[in-house]
Design goal:
403 residues, alpha+beta, 8-stranded mixed β-sheet
Length: 403
């Protein structure tokens, strides 16, 4: 049986042991925290740039937090060269905005894109549709991917927006519009605007094609009003105007519309997206949504939106966008990768990072060699391509209002 005096003596020895032998260990391990360097700077009122250099995990992270409720700031999406089929560096798109009279605070590369620069998902810039489809051409997920939206009332959303278009002829005949811009299908109706380019695309020689100008005459609520203009017998005959459309139909639909169109008739066009939240000012796609209601979606479902293991679970450079629970703050975020100083992240890790930094809803954007963040005209991250900044399909930017 241990005496009380011996017990207290043993306790004293144990305390001395911890003080003498364990204290140096604690002092040795503490400096390891200094290998995570966090630098913050204020870019302008309500805009904070944070750099995280994690030498322990070999990561370089750039995070920009923007108070989007500040009335001086606007969020804008930009298509390379203002054309559906074009590519530019994010820096070049920023220069274009600056030359147009905007002050660009920051910009981020955005959606995945095809070899010719066409973005994979739907896109709207300053209320104008650049691309609108029901399905993508992605081999991984034919249904549209998640998209980031800014509504006219300032609300922020991440949804899988699906295009829904209607052509309403006199007599209330309703015809479905399959898409705005992008590749057409047989027996369908497509609208083309100035983002398509100067002319409509060449269609297969064996198709019967009927194309016609739609000249804008007004608007009633969310319905656009047009009168038919010239019939296009050759796609190179006419330049697509800034506010008008070319209605393009083929095969069975071409035969039908040739018969139904009258010179003086007013036709109506209804363009919307499902779910229908109303007026979308900016819309840009990504793949996939990473965070919803503060939850890591990739951890919950490793096949969400058709993602594949090589893309999701290997470490790559990453680009993302998100917003806070109260929708007052937007976050731009990049993680460098494929280099000695930064190995990149998996999508699970990227989603966790978003949540740690206050993102309540987050979307993965095009990463890899496309990953680029620009602040005050300077690229602040380190793009992984050996040639430097890559040409991309579009970008998203925070700007001050025009001078």
């Amino acid at each position: 049986m241990i005496k009380i005096r011996d017990y207290f003596f043993s306790l004293l020895l144990l305390t001395l042991y911890k003080s003498i032998f364990l204290l140096p260990f604690i002092l040795f391990t503490a400096p390891s925290h200094s290998q995570v360097i966090i630098e913050e700077r204020t870019i302008s009122d309500g805009v904070i740039h944070k750099i995280i250099i994690n030498q322990l995990d070999t990561l370089v992270i750039n995070l920009l937090q923007i108070d989007i409720k500040n009335p001086d700031y606007s969020l804008i999406t930009v298509k390379a060269d203002n054309k559906l089929n074009a590519k530019e560096t994010t820096s070049s798109m920023v220069e274009m905005l600056n030359d147009s009279g905007y002050q660009v605070i920051a910009a981020l590369n955005a959606d995945f894109f095809e070899a010719d620069g066409e973005v994979v998902n739907n896109m709207i810039s300053e209320g104008k549709i650049i691309k609108a489809v029901k399905f993508t051409d992605s081999p991984f997920n034919s249904f549209v991917n998640s998209q980031f939206a800014l509504l006219g009332n300032g609300k922020l959303l991440i949804e899988q927006f699906v295009f829904s278009g209607l052509l309403i002829l006199p007599g209330k005949t309703i015809i479905e519009i399959e898409r705005v811009n992008s590749r057409t299908d047989s027996n369908s109706v497509t609208l083309y605007n100035s983002f398509q380019g100067k002319t409509t695309p060449i269609q297969p020689e064996n198709w019967h094609v009927y194309e016609r100008e739609l000249i804008p005459t007004g608007k009633r609520l969310d319905t656009l009003l047009f009168i038919p203009g010239n019939v296009l017998n050759n796609p190179s005959e006419i330049t697509i105007g800034n506010d008008g459309f070319i209605l393009s139909s083929n095969n069975k639909m071409a035969c039908y519309l040739e018969r139904e169109f009258r010179e003086a008739d007013t036709v109506k066009v209804l363009l919307k997206f499902i779910p229908n939240y109303g007026n979308i000012i900016s819309l840009v796609g990504g793949w996939p949504q990473l965070v919803k209601n503060g939850i890591n979606l990739i951890s919950a479902d490793s096949t969400i939106e058709g993602i594949i293991p090589n893309f999701a679970f290997r470490r790559h450079p990453r680009t993302g966008i998100g917003f806070s629970e109260d929708s007052t703050k937007i976050y731009f975020i990049t993680v460098d990768g494929r280099q000695q100083s930064s190995r990149g992240m998996t999508l699970v890790e990227f989603a966790d990072l978003m949540i740690e930094e206050g993102i309540y809803h987050g979307l993965n954007l095009d990463g890899g060699g496309s990953t680029t963040m620009i602040i005050d005209g300077e690229v602040v991250n380190n793009p992984s391509d050996f040639i430097g900044e890559r040409k991309v399909g579009n970008c998203i930017a925070v700007i001050r209002r025009k001078f």
